[in-house]
Amino acid sequence: MYSFISKLLIGKIALNSAQRHTVLSLSETKHQQITSYASTLTHRKAKRKIHDPVDCHDIIGIKHYLKLKHNLTKNTVISSTEDPSVAATVSLNISTRVFLLKGSTHLMSKNFKNRYNFDGTAQVSVRNMSGQGNFQDSEDKKQLNQRFLDCAARGDLEDFKVLLGVVDIDIKSDRGWTALMFAARNGHTPIISSLIEKGCDVNCLNASGQTALDIAQFWNYKEAVAILSQHRQLVEFDQIHNYYSLNPLYRASDLRKDPSALETAKKNPSAKFVVFLNSEPYLLESLEKKRKFKFAVFNLDQLPANFSDKTTVIFLGLETWDPDSSPWFAVELRQEDATFTSKYYPDGKFVVPFPTTMQMTATHAGIFAEAHSILCWLDRYKYCPTCGSKQTVAEGGYKQICNNPDCSSHKGVHNTCYPRVDPSLIMLVLSPDKKRCLLGRQKRFPPKMFSCLAGFMEPGESIEDTCRREIEEESGIKVGRVDYHSSQPWPFPATLMLGCIAHARTDTIVIDKDELEEARWFSHSEVAQMLAQLHPDGIFVPPSQAIAHQLIKSWVISHSANL
């Protein structure tokens, strides 16, 4: 992470409402050279970064914008002091920490028992942070989280709203309870409404497998039940969107067959371009709470001249159904053309797709899934699989035409000409009594992670038959009924995961050592603990971005236990 200042400082915060920023003026002995100074604070997943120049002496000014973006330069100082008594205290161990939260005019002490309103100037102490690493993992962050949960439990709406943008909205207590659950337990409907408005996970489970709705129902808070029930119904009525599947673009496939329309779209001033290098996307850090990355989006003027003549360009779609809306393209850059990216987005970087893209904002992850799968297909099939001749890219990247006029691929519809999608089944197996589910682990899994069984479809095989065959081959369990749940594109490079619930007819496990390292039945309560990451043995399931997580979670929710 960042290295922190190695000396203790005392300073002042001066509020200047007219300029909508605050300035922290710090005094230190003259000619003290600060070579690396940084601090972080999370607000709506924005990172607060303070950087100092080399050879900075005397007064250091820190400009605190409302968006929590900071610059440390000499000319940002509004007011300063050179009080010798202040400089003399640099060797003291100052334990008090004061937080200045966005959008508020008060300081909050470390123990959060006192709030200090201020207007003009207030004393602030800055403690030595050397060696503590990421601020988000520090003791202060834990206390922020606890304060957030306590406010939800007490119904303290004023303090709750102050903290709402600072912590993860779905942060859990040691028992796996979220702020929404604490509010539901005590019937605090304003807190519940505020959390739902901010996009909290209403279907989140605690260690007992209960949702906030289950808790509100048990304690008979009818108004809370009505709010939570209405929202859950909206979620269930809507279509299920697993991670990588929430692509906001209208693909406009009819435009792909019109080369002139595509050329016009590329030159559209509103056209947007996302870029790749060796199939690695160029990403920026995101301000969204749970997702760290998003695409760096370029316009035509920012791209290299005649880029489409030298690179692979694919048409992703339009922003809306309106044919005049902005077209989106993905560009596979050449190494020599990739340097322009840092000119416009100096904080961006090309990243290894997996697992980094599992931390993207949901809509950009959907765009990535489309772009990456097509670019990988074009890269791997530059030569005709039928005759070996060179191919020409057509239809905005969605078709390749063999340059050999005598090739048999020109006759009929062949999957060598179009992007391939590989269907794969992933199954949650329920025991005959429906009280347990079967989970397994492969040797390549992280230690203590268990997941659903999975396998690829074979030619001439149905979804149901694939489930039954794969489950019996891997675990020895015989399956009867198979229910479809949902699907997930897995763009590494082009797999479609078909999620199913399989109902076992037997329960004796005989694993295939070549497929699985271990497989076992887990009870409902155990799985709830695994989802909440509170299993006593440290066993856990894949993250929420994986369809396996959603299959497991759906079973726990549907069989939620009473308090």
TrEMBL record:
Gene3D superfamilies tied to this protein: 3.90.79.20, Ankyrin repeat-containing domain, Nucleoside Triphosphate Pyrophosphohydrolase
The EC number(s) this enzyme carries: 3.6.1.22
Reaction equation(s) it catalyzes: a 5'-end NAD(+)-phospho-ribonucleoside in mRNA + H2O = a 5'-end phospho-adenosine-phospho-ribonucleoside in mRNA + beta-nicotinamide D-ribonucleotide + 2 H(+); NADH + H2O = reduced beta-nicotinamide D-ribonucleotide + AMP + 2 H(+); NADPH + H2O = reduced beta-nicotinamide D-ribonucleotide + adenosine 2',5'-bisphosphate + 2 H(+); NAD(+) + H2O = beta-nicotinamide D-ribonucleotide + AMP + 2 H(+)
ANK repeat start and end residues: 175-207
Names of required cofactors: Zn(2+); Mg(2+)
Any one GO CC term of the record: peroxisome
Main location: cytoplasm
Residues covered by the Nudix hydrolase domain: 419-547
Pfam families (UniProt xref): Ank_2, NUDIX, NUDIX-like, Zn_ribbon_NUD
GO biological process, one term: NAD+ catabolic process
MF GO annotations: metal ion binding; NADH pyrophosphatase activity
Keywords, sorted A to Z: ANK repeat, Hydrolase, Magnesium, Metal-binding, NAD, NADP, Peroxisome
Compartments, record wording: Cytoplasmic granule; Peroxisome
Annotated function: mRNA decapping enzyme that specifically removes the nicotinamide adenine dinucleotide (NAD) cap from a subset of mRNAs by hydrolyzing the diphosphate linkage to produce nicotinamide mononucleotide (NMN) and 5' monophosphate mRNA. The NAD-cap is present at the 5'-end of some RNAs; in contrast to the canonical N7 methylguanosine (m7G) cap, the NAD cap promotes mRNA decay. Preferentially acts on NAD-capped transcripts in response to nutrient stress. Also acts on free nicotinamide adenine dinucleotide molecules: hydrolyzes NAD(H) into NMN(H) and AMP, and NADPH into NMNH and 2',5'-ADP.
Binding partners and assembly: Homodimer. Homodimerization is essential for its catalytic activity and protein stability. Interacts (via ANK repeats) with BLMH.
Family statement drawn from the similarity comment of this UniProt entry: Belongs to the Nudix hydrolase family. NudC subfamily.
Protein name: NAD-capped RNA hydrolase NUDT12
Organism whose genome encodes this protein: Lymnaea stagnalis (Great pond snail)
